[in-house]
Amino acid sequence: MTLTRSSRSPAARPGLARALTYTLVTALALAVVVPVGWVLLASLKQRGEFFGSPWTLPKGLHFSNYADAFVSAHLGQYFLTSVLVTALGLVFVLAVSVPAAYVIARYEFRGRRAVEIALLGGLFVNVNYIVVPIFLMLVDWDRSLLDVFPGGFFIDNPAVLSLVYAATSIPFTIYLLTAYFRSIPVEYEEAAAVDGASRFRIMVTIMLPMARPAVTTVILFNFLAYWNDFIISLTLLPGEGKTLQVGLLNLFTAQKAAADYGRLYAGMVIVIVPVLIVYAVIQRRLIEGMASGGVKG
């Protein structure tokens, strides 16, 4: 009898582990889906429907809440600003990080180890802690250019905000891309060099396509960081050209006093939907990049 129990025990353990895994994954999925679904339903309700049970379904599809949020609350303008800032930030960070990561991964030069250590140190710097020094530095630069730009140039400039985003995310981006470039066999580059390809052409036509999973990963992580940022955009864009996150806070303050929660939740959906779309588009390559990093790294 003892032998029978011991022989069945190993077979039962995988089933129990699988059941616990499914239970945990289901709980995590519900923890994400239920709030998002609730916000989506709340964004379609009229003002009077919020005074009853919050879990009741909307009596009608009041898409006018989205029109009011876009036009009356200026979320459309803030949305375009966030798209511009995020797109420019991604262009800036990739334009700098891809060549830098390739050089660090493949070239031997004096001081390379020091550069790598400095980039690793940058991973531990929380950008929210250095917002004030960045702001004061940009204010000083505006003062020095007061004769040329009386209205200021560095503060309240979406392009400058994009540069700040890119600069603060360069250490993480270079670190991830460098590790992936090093995992690619050097024979591909040697074969291309024999055919007469330059280093730049090798990087663009061979290494970059092979590193597409890693590039997709850094695009997603940086997109989330730029799109969801609040502290930096609030500090560096104090004027009317706010990003969507800051505009949503203003909408929350205004609609909380007016008790117009339908417009408020519509604004939340406007913030959430682009993130879901981007993730749905590139999730497969993101998983490939994470899996490749785990195997090759």
UniProtKB/TrEMBL annotation:
It is found in: Cell membrane. This is Carbohydrate ABC transporter permease. Pfam families: BPD_transp_1. Belongs to the binding-protein-dependent transport system permease family. Residues 79-282 form the ABC transmembrane type-1 domain. The chain crosses the membrane at residues 20-41, 78-105, 117-139, 159-181, 202-227, 264-282. Keywords: Cell membrane, Membrane, Transmembrane, Transmembrane helix, Transport. Coiled coil: none annotated. It is a multi-pass membrane protein. InterPro entries: BP-dep_ABC_trans_perm, MetI-like, MetI-like_sf. SUPFAM superfamilies: MetI-like (SSF161098). GO terms for cellular component: plasma membrane. CDD domains: TM_PBP2. GO terms for biological process: transmembrane transport.
